[in-house]
Amino acid sequence: MKKPKNLQALILHLSTNFINIAPDEVDEAIYNALGIIGKFTNSDRSYVFQMNNATNSITNTHEWCAAGIEPQIDNLKNVQLIQRPWLNKKLHNKKPFVIDDVTKLSKDAVKEKADFMDQDIKSLVVVPMVSNKKVIGLVGFDAVKKPRKWKNEEVELLKIVSDIFANALIRRSMQKKIYESEEQYRLLVENLNDGIVISQNEKIIYHNRQFAEMLGYEYEELVNADYRRIYTKEGLAILEERGRRREKGEDVPSRYETIFKKKNGEHLHVEANVRIIDYHNMPATFGIISDITERKNKERYQRKLEVELLKHQKVSSAGLLAGGIVHNIRNTLTVIIGRAQLLKQKFPDLKEPNIIISSANKILQIADAFTKKAQKEQIEKEIDFNLNDLLKTEIVYFEANQYVKNRVDIHLDINPSIPKIHGHYIDFSHAISGIIEFSVNAMEKSTQRKLQVQTDWDEKNILLKITHTGKQLPEKDMSSVFTPFHSFNIFAGKRIIGKEHLSTMQLFNAYILLERYRVKFQIETDSENQTVFTLMIPVSG
Question: What domains, with CATH codes, occur in the chain?
C-alpha cells in the first residue's frame, strides 16, 4: 500500500477506511492500518492487545512486523496483569506512556523489563484503548534494532489510531450481540415503555396500557375511541397531509414527529413509527409511539449549537477532522451505552437493538458526510467537480440530523449529464449548504415539509433549483438578498437585528461565495406557493 505523504493524509486515510466497515472486515482493516502506521513511523513492530476484564489479562490479537523482525503474537496470549503491576497501573491511568530506553526502566518494572528484553525491544510507546471510561486494550510501537526517541507526532498518531480501533471493535461487539440475541430483542420491544396502537376506520381497535397512561387516560376510555380525539390541530394537519400524499402514490416516511393532546388538554410531543398492516383482512395502521416531550427541548438546543458551529466553521485540517469523527463516535456511543444501561436495570438479561442500530447508522452517516466533504474542501486550488456528487454528499449530511430525517422529506432530481464545474469546491459546498439549511429552517412550523433539489443545464448554464414548502421571504428580501446591497440595507445604523434578518445572511453569504464565478440567483414563488431558489452557474469554457 502506498505510503501517505504526511501525518494529516495518513489520519484521513485511516479514518476513511474505517467508515461503514462491516464486522467481518474489522480484523483485516486493523492489520492493514498497523502496517501503514508502522512503515510511516519506521517502527520495527506495531500491534494491538485486547483486554479480558474478567481475568485482568491482555492478549496480542493483531501484529505487524518489519522485514527481519521476529513476530511475538503467538507468545503473548493471556498476559496476566496482576503479575505486572507497573504495566497494569500504566494502562489504567489511560494515558500514553513512552519508553525511549528499556534498560533504564525503574525497579518497580522488573517483570515488564524482563518481558521487553525477551522480545528484543529496545524502545516502545503504548496508548491504552478506552471506551466508556474503561480500558479495552492497547496499541503500540516497538523499536527492536536499536533504541530510539519517539516523536510527539508519533504519540499523537497512536492516540488517534487507538480511538479508531476502539470504536471499530466496540461496534463489532455490539453488532455480534444483536445478531445472536434477536429473539431477546423482540421480547424487549414488547416490554418497552412505548405506546402501541392499532387504528382502523378511524377507531382505536387495539392499544397497550402504556399508550393510555402516556395520554392520561384509563385503558377502557380509549377502547374503540375515535383516534382523532388524541390529536392536536397541528397533529391532525400532519396526519391529513400524510394521507393525501399516500393517496397520490407518494412515499411517506414511516417515522415522523407529531403532537397529541392528553386528556387534561396538555400537548404531548411524540415520535410515531407507523406501518400499514392487514388486520382481520382489512388495512389498519400499526404505530409505536414514543414520548419525546422532554427530549425535544434538548434536541432543539443541540441542533442550534450544531447549526451555529457549521455556520461559522470552515475547513479544518485532516487531523482535526479525524478528531471530530472520533468525537462524534464517542458521543453517540455514550448515548447508546446510557440507554442500554437504563434498560438493563429493568431487564438485566436483555439489550435494546433499535436504539443501538439507529445510533450506529447515525454515526456512520455523519462520519461519511464529513469525510467526503473534507476530502474536497481541503483542496486549495480550483478543480473540476460534479455538482450532483456535491449535492448527494450535502443531503446525506443533512439527513444524518434526526430533526431533518424525521420531519423533512428531501427529494433529489438530478440530470446525470450536466457538465462539471470549475472552481473551489468549498465555495460551492458552503453556499449550497447555506441555502438548504435556510430552506429547512423555513419549514419549521409548516405542516408539510418538503425540500426538492433539482439539476439541469442548457448550452450556457448549469441550473440548480432548491424548492421548499416553508415560510416565504418578505418581498423586499426576495428582491435584495442576492445583491451587494443586502448587508448594508439590513445592518446599517441598527443596534438590534431581527432574527429573520439574521437568517437571510445565509443566503447573502451564498451570493458572496459564488459572485466570483458569475453565478446568477433568482427567487420566486411557484403556483403551489413554494419558494424556489434558482442558481444559474455558467458552463465552464
Answer: 7-180 (3.30.450.40), 193-291 (3.30.450.20), 379-538 (3.30.565.10)
